[in-house]
Amino acid sequence: MEMRAREDIEIGEDITPPIPPLSYALHHSFLHSHCYSCFSPLPLPLPLNSNYNNTKNHHHYYYCSPACTTTRVVSTEELHILQSHPHHPFSSDLRAALRFLQSHPDDRIAVYPQNFSWINHSCSPNASYRFFLSPPPPCCSNSTKLRILPQHTVLTKDDEVCQDNGPKIVVRSIKRIKQGEQVTVTYTNLLQPKKMRQSELWSRYRFICRCERCSASPPTNVDHTLQEISSANLDASSLSSDQNVYRDYAIRTLTDYIDDAITQYLSFGDPELCCEKLEILLTQGLLYEQLEGREVKSQPTIKLHPLHYLCLNAYTTLASAYKVRASDLLGLYSELDEHLLEALDLSRTSAAYSLLLAGATHHLFRFESSLIATVANFWISAGDSLLTLSRSPVGSEFAKWDLPIANPPLLKCICSKCSLMDNFKAILFHSEAQNADFEDISSEFLDCVTIITQKVWSFLIHGCRYLRAFKDPIDFSWLGTSKYSSLRDVQPHLCSTAEGPGYTLQERMHIFQLGVHCLLYGGYLASICYGRHSHLTSQVQNILDCEECLINDSHETD
User: Fold this and answer.
1) Where is each SET domain found (predicted)?
2) d(Cα 273, Cα 261) in Å, to the nearest integer?
3) Alpha helix locations (H) across 190-308?
């Protein structure tokens, strides 16, 4: 079972019309907040009228309109599941399966038809997909032809007819696909090394991936980087004879340590302790004797490659945890004092980790283009963090302390050296991304952000020893050179509010300019993956509209 391209397909093009599900059911956690038929959010609290409340089923589910009450008729068996086990974790699965069996008694169980369900997995996919809960926009209409077909199978006209019920799915190319080439998507997180991907795929889907990336020998550059560790000051004679066992044990220990730190943040609400633990791990590493339970004279340490997948997880968590800590301080204190100065330090550290994460994953993206969706998310997050820092209320209060800061004229900070803004406007208001210019746009973007970053990076990383080891969070060409050794010698030194460089007007303008670039490029990549009407491109538009960067009256109807 596989799907192949009927024709040559360029990057960033829809290759299916909106595909409806064979069966679908609202997740049990949304039974009281979304329409049971179309999944649309309901106004809360619910008004007391028949459009929403369904007295016959004792309020186990709700509809958004009289029309939806007729499009989704609940069977006696389904109502029994709702009444007996409304919050069971498998309630929605059972209801979806029940609906499918009632409507397709002779077919094998699936959620979507073969137009989508026969698209296989790859760890280096050439396509992605997106869902539409509401009616798809005009650019994704049913008139879009199906550009893929099963191997050795000819689809009939009826196979291409798209119905109007249920959340629809659209498949889109993220690479150039040749006629006859198999179309693939990913079933797992691509920023994991091969062993973790294989384990997850087997656990969930019971198959061993043999895609080009997994079959590569030696491992691809990306997979090698995602799992590389270093043993500083450790002689080969000190290692156990089984290198693989040693490496696996080291990774398990490091993973447990990072998971424990993240749990402190997510489960126990202690972002400060989480930051402390992760910073110590990144800067100090783990002592070899902690792994082997024995003493060694040289006190070697085990450290992760700065682009190791555990480091990427740590950067993601630190960016979020520092942001929460800054937000908490701003919520507690209103007058400028040491607490608000600390909030500024935390905000800039959060922005620095977001920028490092975007730059690191972009470096991997250069070797594995299927990471485009992940990279789009990280650039958008970095841009949002930088804009949040640029408009921080702390900065506007610095003048009271006779520090050289004022609110910058943000509209005058738009870069005139690249076409990102014009390109993004064209995507939003007129057409899809001009993907033939992808390489030029990416090169233009990297040139601009590299120049701007050099002007603000020292300010963003002040007080954080681990980040100070990165001379440039965008250019990672120094990896594998003698400069990489500086990261191995970093000593633990937590972020502090020690007196540092002033937050000048010029720095604030550069930070804003950098944030806009990151948002625009992330939005551009998102439009390739998901189209111009995706939630990510809308998120970028909304953020920039708040900054008055885009002119809303230039919208045109499709």
Assistant:
1) 1-188
2) 7
3) 194-205, 212-215, 221-226, 243-266, 271-284, 288-292
Phi and psi dihedrals of 285, rounded to 5?
75, -165
**Residue type at 238?**
S
Q: Secondary structure of 269-290 in the HEC alphabet?
A: CCHHHHHHHHHHHHHHCEEHHH
Max Cα distance, the chain (Å): 78
* Residue 85 pLDDT: 65
- What single DSSP character describes residue 230? E
Tokens found for residue 555 = 């919208």
From residue 553, alpha-carbon distances to 404, 424, 494, 549 in Å are: 36, 15, 47, 12
> What tens digit of pLDDT does each residue of 459-469 get?
999 888 899 88
Mean pLDDT of 194-200: 95
Residues 444 and 207: their CA atoms lie apart, in Å, by: 41
Say whether pTM exceeds 0.85: no
**Which is it for the CA torsion 92, 187, 207, 2, positive or negative?**
positive
Q: How far apart are the first and last CA of the chain?
A: 36
Rounded to whole angstroms, what are the CA distances from 356 to 285, 306, 324, 457, 525? Answer: 19, 10, 18, 10, 18
Structure tokens at 149: 């077909």
Please state, as a whole number, how many other Cβ atoms lie within 10 Å of the Cβ of residue 70: 10
Residues, the chain? 558
* CB contact set of 334 (below 8 Å; sequence gap of 6+): none
Residue 131's DSSP bridge partners are: 169
